[in-house]
Amino acid sequence: MEIIFNQKPGQGGGQEQAQAQARPRAAAAQGGAMMGGAAMGMGGPGMAGAAMGGPDPVKDGDQRSFMADVVQASQQVPVIVDFWATWCGPCKQLTPVLEKVVRAAGGRVRLVKVDVDKNQALAGQLRIQSVPTVYAFWQGQPVDGFQGAQPESQVKAFVERLLAAAGGQMPSADLMAEAKKAVEAGDLQTAADLFGALLDQEPENAEAFAGLARVYLKAGQEDAVKEMLAAAPPKVLDHGQVQEVKSAIEVAEAGREAAARTAEFQAKLAADPNDHQARLDLAVALAGAGNREGAVTELLDLIRRDRKWNDEAARKQLVKYFEAWGHTDELTQAARRKLSAILFA
Q1: Which CATH superfamily is domain 14-165 in?
Q2: Under CATH, what is the fold of the domain 254-343?
Q3: Contact at 8 Å (CB) between 250 and 31?
Q4: 34-55 pLDDT per residue, tens
Q5: Which numeric CATH code is attached to 172-238?
Q6: Per-residue pLDDT averaged across 187-204, rounded?
Q7: Predicted TM-score (pTM) of this structure
Q8: With bands split at pLDDT 50, 70 and 90, how would you rate the model's confidence at 298?
Q9: Which residues participate in catalysis according to the annotation?
């Protein structure tokens, strides 16, 4: 899976988005020339603000007003164009989401909705082949786009990339909340986009840094996390959540080395159940193989047998797993309760 850190308009989003980005550029230039006379007759560049007037950043557009509403208006603020049709089911899903996200941006971006059936000439000039199709314009040029209905989290990521390109930004609290939702939904690409956008705004936001690093780890891109850590400012590295990420990498590396010797450690324990080093090694091997529950079981068993052994090595290893897995992880919380019951029995 490819996770794109700090994605900007035009740098990804799948085959459909790439096609949507490529098609409008020449067409927009051609369409602008074809519509220029009629549009300029409506008032010229000074009409951009008036055409989008009022507090609502969402409006309906057509081929006569396209130059003023979109091309000229995008010289001042990014403009998203939603090409839709009354018969289109996915359009009915997407358009309300676009309206909600654009309005939430507080005037930093605008939305123009174009009914392709009523504006067939415009749709033809911009080579709209299916609906819904969305183009984003900035300074008179299409800079991003996608086709088909998208979930709200991806629409927000799309708008944030557009705002970043235009020098604007969405509230950091909104970005963090949406990034966390994307992680919970398993949408790692959107989560990476949102965490990256937040880091653009706040380079020393340790929570966003840790969030992005964990996304990379979930995507199997451990080397990318190591590069992030190597370049991170000291203030970020000292943060508790970033320390958890570092622990996760250490745990993964140790586990991979030990996993190949799982059978060896199991044989040692079978021969001597009180071989504490073999039990500790087996726990590390099990964790490295993805058997977290098995690792916890072995460590808790070792703590029951001899909690002071090797300067409390079993407890320390278990705490390292808690850091690596995250303190809100269900297994972490369950294991903590079991550990407390043993220590305070």
Answers
A1: Glutaredoxin (3.40.30.10)
A2: 1.25.40
A3: no
A4: 343 333 222 222 223 323 334 5
A5: 1.25.40.10
A6: 85
A7: 0.51
A8: very high
A9: 88, 91
